[in-house]
What we know:
The chain is built from 15 helices and 8 strands. By secondary structure, it is α+β, with helices and mostly antiparallel strands. Helix 7 packs antiparallel against helix 9 (165-175) and helix 8 packs antiparallel against helix 10. This is Protein-serine/threonine kinase. Its main location: mitochondrion.
Amino acid sequence: xxxxxxxxxxxxxxxxxxxxxxxxxxxxxxxxxxxxxxxxxxxxxxxxxxxxxxxxxxxxxxxxxxxxxxxxxxxxxxxxxxxxxxxxxxxxxxxxxxxxxxxxxxxxxxxxxxxxxxxxxxxxxxxxxxxxxxxxxxxxxxxxxxxxxxxxxxxxxxxxxxxxxxxxxxxxxxxxxxxxxxxxxxxxxxxxxxxxxxxxxxxxxxxxxxxxxxxxxxxxxxxxxxxxxxxxxxxxxxxxxxxxxxxxxxxxxxxxxxxxxxxxxxxxxxxxxxxxxxxxxxxxxxxxxxxxxxxxxxxxxxxxxxxxxxxxxxxxxxxxxxxxxxxxxxxxxxxxxxxxxxxxxxxxxxxxxxxxxxxxxxxxxxxxxxxxxxxxxxxxxxxxxxxxxxxxxxxxxxxxxxxxxxxxxxxxx
Length: 413
């Protein structure tokens, strides 16, 4: 009731001592300037969002519906047509599906413990999801390519609006950490929220990419993905990051099935690989501080078979201490000292992709979300992420992911 009362008060225009970014306060504008008009419209939209916290019948109804998840094989073989009908079919699927998935996540936010749900940063993310639901559910039926084109603009806007959600969730839960009574519940919430976010972004980005004509691609699916090439891309990025931090970086050797090519979606690998490489390089450099220009190589092995493919990253970074090993997959746990995070890296995934494109670099650690998020993503894709550590020697990380060629049962997005 207190959270409802707080938001009711804001909706009525009572000024509360909450961060400005969370204020849903209608602005009283005496100016006719474009800027003031924009703020009035923004305040009106936020006021609608507050009301929807309590008048949530449409959200509740949508949350009762089951999600319809697609296999990558379905996305691959329905991603082309001569007359462009696949574009409209994809848009109509998203038009029905995205509000359902967003409503499921709103339900997850509402189930958070009271004190955590009231955290201003968590509330801000909650509000983002409610606004996304409103915009998606109120969008009229997509009947032609003109309507589909406008729908694409909405998708791009929402993808941009939500690009920092992982970072914001990390900040909010770090701020609320002392109030967390059951970490299993929070882990479940984060697993569901982050993997749902990955699925939504993959579906939306796939639809937008269907408009592009790229060699070896159908939407976001690469029909001839080379694990070696995508590893090399992220090795180059991680080495630059490491060199910026430590003045040097380990060399990386890639072996195994280096010529393998098969259909797969690069996006999740673009999230997972930089995190794993960053961790291995940081461990290697910090365990050889006395000889920073003479550090052991990191070895990456690719193993490909009919069912799945495995990427093993082996370092000689001293391994993980026994008392830490059980916690490395926990959210908000990091072996790096607290308080030295850099906003350019933060939790890495979306930001790290931006950084490699912009040439930025930053420190070698973040909020401690990297490994647990990578593990959640791998499991969402029907695979696994496992760590084997030899304390005093080094660590082997095994990323295992299923093929999507339709020969075996695949994951659903």
